[in-house]
Amino acid sequence: MKIGIDKIGFYTPHLYVDMNKLAVARDVEPEKFTIGIGQEKMAVAPITQDSVTMAANAAWNILDDKDKENIDFIIFGTESGIDNSKAAGVYIHELLGLNQHARTIEVKQACYGATAGIQLAKGHIALNPDSKVLVLASDIARYGLNTGGEATQGAGAVAIVVSADPAILALEDKSAYLTSEVMDFWRPVYSDTAMVDGKLSNEKYISFFEEVWEDYKKKSLLTLADFAAICFHLPYTKMGLKALRTIYEEGTTEDKERLLENLEYSKLYNKHVGNIYTGSLYLSFLSLLEQNKGLEAGSRIGLFSYGSGAVGEFFTGIIQPNFREHLLIDQHDHLLSSRKELSVEAYEEVFNNTLPTDGSSLELDITADPANITLAGINKHIRHYVNKTNHK
After folding, report:
1. Is residue 242 part of an annotated ligand binding site?
2. Domain limits for position 292
3. What positions does UniProt annotate as the active site of this protein (predicted)?
4. Residue tagged active-site, from 14, 124, 233, 272
């Protein structure tokens, strides 16, 4: 039985800041951002969007009534959770009108959370072939204004339906994974911004990739020649190239050219959104599917997932026949092209506009946010969400 990705969609807020202009404001050469780390635009989340609303918006356009009935497991991968007790996925039930007879959990391990969710989903479908699993990856990357990590911020979510007989990608059985206690990136519960040792994080990302790649080759007996593309977790898009460079000499010139070309396709969405933590790998995968018009069914895609702290995994899937019929290319193109550019000053205002933490009430103006699902306010420590479609 084939198990894998049956549907996939993404959402990013309607605001962004241009990386060239941010560089000038920070007295940095623009090429450091646009070439050095490979970012062109950075999505900015307004106060009316959080990890819950972004995930709900990502899922809203890919689910039909049959999906909503058959989904009996919701796995929410995030490191931008809004509650230390209640799983963010529980809110999704009401917002999307999902079947109540379902399990719902939140998974956390830095940027690896959604991959853990997909592997859990695969096991669930193996035991329950008629069910479907909704895997959500939603995050707001925050390091702070004028910090070393500011240029690698972003906001967005990816929603994935995992099922038997998938329409887009059939996951293969072999996988290689690794865990090591590393303080390369973390966010204490008392902080709303992350802390990072950038040099160590880059080093660990590369070393994890090299190790799981070697382990995967031993388990699978595959080589670079067997891959049409390798997609990477992209905290910034240059990171994927740094990792690929460590192995592409293992193949022929043709292998190297093919992998580099497809890496470029897989980076396009991430360049214009920024880092979305748990969803970054899957945004890269979606970019490859939607931007490479020559990608063929039957192609094997490698996926490298890395979550600081640290957990890494390399796994693979096979592109399915007629997969293009199940993509939302026009919708995603409109989502990105219709966004509003913020000045650096306006971006800083949005960044500093945060919800109260003392239990006081706040009603938000959701008319300025074009998204279907928004955060409408907070009262007595309770967030109130609105699905505008259901309130027409």
Report:
1. yes
2. 172-321
3. 79, 111, 233
4. 233
